[in-house]
Write a structure and sequence with these properties.
single chain, 764 residues, alpha/beta, Dimethylsulfoxide Reductase, domain 2, 6-stranded mixed barrel, binds iron/sulfur cluster
């Protein structure tokens, strides 16, 4: 019996993003156990709720094993199995025809957040195809927007200190007990010795009992709170004057803007008592170093989203937390060995291969400029001058706009989008406005629809081709985390892909070869590509994965470092060379350079007429274990058994008003549609607010119309709007999944999947 141990990292399906270092024991090519790798340079070494199911998940018969081609109508669930060669031949031939007829911009790529590590390869493919990066990605509302803003304000997407305990940590709209339980455990263990904890959240969550202060904020008003903090900190001289004077730009302008946000006004807007606003600002500013954690919840606020993060960056800067030794020290990419860089993501993207006139065709780039080519063109020269390497548009922080792509498919405006490749994503669950996505995926205007996936999802059920992808247990890892990290992480694969599953690199390579630019994809697989990436620093992938794990930069760039090319201090890669409290990049793109609060477009105050019919404020989302986004909901793999139903949070007073008891099914309705979830009645939420869980579907229901795996019954995005760009964040195009209006009623008799159930159909 051949027995071996592989050093792997748990980092994507069916895991999460904790990057746990593990040892995989493999017997005769079969994975038999996963155990912590004590040598791995991270405290994260496995969890109790997901990890035990990984092996069962891998070998479960729910996994796709062979390429499928649709033979019936979309959604009929009639397929034939075909070979990879035939699938790639047919897809490439159709792509070539559509390109010829409509131009290379006719292709869209849709994707989720971080279910792969080869985003630069996807971008390389698109640039060579001539496509203007018509990439619709959940990243626009999940961290990639804040990374793009960070590039604008401090010249790097990198920051955040890991290891040392901060003196204060602000957890902002993030239930870390669910999203990052191992980091939450570490934070709690540091108390009460070091860390003050402040929770900003409409819900108390399970963390509420462990924090020093819980600020129960009205959903969507976060920028007002943070501007109030800035005012208090400046007025009371709690800011780091030396750092502000030397290393920030626009302090006086920020001070004048923040002066508008008195504690009394902010209290009125946010529903947080004025004294709590002042006390929490003092706690954050006087406990240094501090961390003000970002969270994707505020990325999902639509019109206000980017201004929340802008206020956060300003707070981190004026309190000296971005300086060396601060709570969130800003670091740029640095060389590894003897001044050499490994091949970073940005070096694989081939941005210069895309003709200039094609850039202008990127969908949404005339309006939402920061994360698209207009933002790239302002920021890239400064970044490249500072660091001497290409600007990271390869990361999925430079994207088109997913809802506008769906609209372009339906309306053929600004031009026909006739082909879509979805990889590692389930937009019928994770994109806003499920009905919009559904119409686009069913539209005859979409002449080619390809999905690369692990299991049959509702999105895959509507595809023309479904291609079986390798999970993270079946593929190696070599990544700079889309260049967010100065380091390169490497890990072996546990086993070869099962059945005919393939790592996604081979999908892009296979298409490129058939479309005539295969010479740009010379690497035979992902290990070969990793060898190429590590060669400049004298390592092979095998050495890096089995011995180094994380190849660290010898000297990450900081603002104090002497730039060898200029002989001067590097400063920050921004137009002023400083952290920009007043942003020249936003100004150059036509936006207000300073942060400000704007009332959410669908609230009791902006839409009192609508609030008469829909009196509650709706928030959606919030990860909960052992699920991860729309993954892990199949019965029989250990995860769904732990968490069988969707749950909505409701205050006891509100529940009593509607005759709802804990555990009752409840219909939640917005102007877009209706879903049902089970009530969790608890006073951890404001009586005026309703929280529903996101990403729910029921794979035990039939994989065909009208059920599509229980797509409609409890899916939060049936309630969210994404067809009106006026409600999007004006800077990034982020669409709103939170701070909306809804109403509720008890669901008297519910039969799962029944057509009579108003929450089980596309037309309700
Ligand atoms: S699923 Fe568990 S083991 Fe895997 S990364 Fe997440 S916490 Fe770590």
């Amino acid at each position: 019996m051949a027995r071996e141990e592989k050093k792997i990292v748990c980092w994507a399906s069916p895991g999460c993003k904790m990057y746990c270092g593990l040892i995989a024991e493999v017997e005769d090519g079969k994975l038999v156990s996963l155990k912590p790798n004590r040598d791995y340079p991270s405290k994260n070494k496995g969890c109790a709720d997901r990890l035990p199911h990984h092996i069962r998940w891998l070998y479960s018969d729910i996994q796709l094993r062979r390429p499928l081609k649709r033979v019936g109508e979309r959604g009929e669930n009639r397929w034939e199995t075909i070979s990879w060669d035939r699938a790639l031949d047919e897809i490439a031939e159709k792509l070539a025809q559509l390109k010829e007829k409509y131009g290379p911009e006719t292709l869209a790529v849709t994707e989720g957040t971080y279910r792969s590590d080869i985003y630069p390869i996807r971008t390389r493919f698109l640039n060579l195809f001539g496509n203007p990066s018509n990439i619709g990605c959940a990243g626009t509302i999940c961290h990639c927007n804040t990374a793009a803003l960070s590039l604008a304000l401090i010249g790097t997407a990198q920051g955040g200190r890991h290891g040392t305990a901060p003196a204060c940590c602000v957890i902002h709209g993030n239930d870390m007990s669910q999203t990052a339980p191992l980091a939450w455990r570490d934070l709690k263990n540091q108390r009460p010795r070091t860390t003050k904890l402040i929770l900003i959240d409409p819900r108390r969550t399970s963390m509420g009992g462990d924090v020093d202060m819980w600020l129960r904020i009205r959903p969507g008003t976060d920028t007002a709170l943070l501007m109030g903090w800035i005012r208090v900190i400046i007025e009371e001289n709690l800011y780091d004057k030396a750092f502000v004077d030397e290393w920030t730009f626009g302090f006086e302008e920020l001070k004048a803007r923040a002066a508008e946000y008195t504690p009394e006004r902010v209290s009125e807007i946010t529903w947080i008592p004025a004294e709590q606003i002042v006390a929490s600002a003092r706690m954050y500013a006087t406990n240094w170093p501090a961390e003000l954690k970002d969270a994707s919840s505020t990325d999902m606020l639509g019109r206000n989203a980017i201004r929340v993060e802008q206020a956060r960056v300003c707070l981190r800067a004026i309190t000296g937390n971005l300086k060396i030794g601060g709570g969130e020290t800003a670091e740029g990419p640095g060389p590894v060995a003897g001044g050499n860089f490994a091949v970073r993501d940005s070096m694989l993207q081939l941005a210069d291969m895309l003709p200039a006139e094609q850039r202008k065709k990127q969908i949404g780039s005339d309006r939402f400029k920061l994360m698209m080519w207009p933002g790239y063109e302002v920021m890239a020269p400064i970044y490249e001058e500072t660091y001497g390497i290409p600007f990271p548009m390869c990361a999925h922080n430079f994207l088109s706009n997913q809802p506008l792509i769906w609209k372009a498919i339906l309306e053929r405006d600004p031009y026909p989008v006739t082909a879509n490749i979805t990889w590692g994503s389930n937009p019928l669950l994770n994109s806003g406005d499920t009905k919009l996505v559904y119409k686009a995926l069913k539209s005859p205007n979409l002449e080619l629809s390809v999905v690369s996936e692990l299991v049959m999802t509702p999105t895959a059920m509507l595809a023309d081709y479904v291609l079986p992808a390798a999970s993270k247990l079946e593929k190696p890892m070599c990544e700079t985390h889309e260049d967010f990290s100065p380091n390169i992480k490497c890990a072996e694969r546990a086993v070869r892909p099962l059945g005919e599953r393939r790592e996604e690199y081979l999908l892009w390579k296979g298409l490129a070869e058939r479309l005539g630019f295969g010479e740009y994809f010379p690497w035979k697989d992902e290990e070969d590509l990793a060898d190429y990436r590590l060669a400049p620093v004298g390592l092979t992938f095998k050495e890096a994965a089995a011995e180094r794990y994380v190849v660290r930069s010898d000297e990450p760039w900081t603002y104090e470092r002497i730039n060898p090319r200029t002989g001067k201090r590097t400063g920050f890669a921004t137009p002023s060379g400083k952290i920009e409290l007043y942003s020249h990049v936003l100004e150059a793109l036509g936006y207000d350079p300073l942060p400000f609060f704007e009332e959410p477009p669908e609230s009791p105050f902006s839409r009192p007429d609508l609030a008469e019919q829909y009196p509650y404020i709706l928030i959606t989302g919030g990860n909960f274990r052992p699920m991860f986004h729309s993954e892990n909901r199949q019965l029989g793999v250990g995860t769904r058994e732990q968490y069988p139903y969707p749950v909505m949070d409701i205050h006891p007073e509100t529940a009593a008003k509607h005759g709802i008891a804990d555990g009752d099914w409840v219909y939640v309705e917005s102007p877009r549609g209706v879903i049902r979830q089970k009530a969790r009645v608890a006073d951890e939420i404001d009586p005026r607010v309703i929280n529903v869980q996101s990403h729910w579907w029921f794979p035990e229901q039939p994989p065909r119309e009208p059920w599509l795996g229980g797509l409609w019954a409890s899916n939060a995005n049936v309630l969210t709007p994404a067809d009106d760009p006026d409600g999007f964040d004006p800077v990034t195009g982020g669409w709103p999944l939170r701070a909306l209006l809804c109403r509720i009623r008890k669901a008297e008799r519910v039969q799962a999947g029944a057509k009579a159930d108003p929450a089980a159909r596309a037309d309700t």
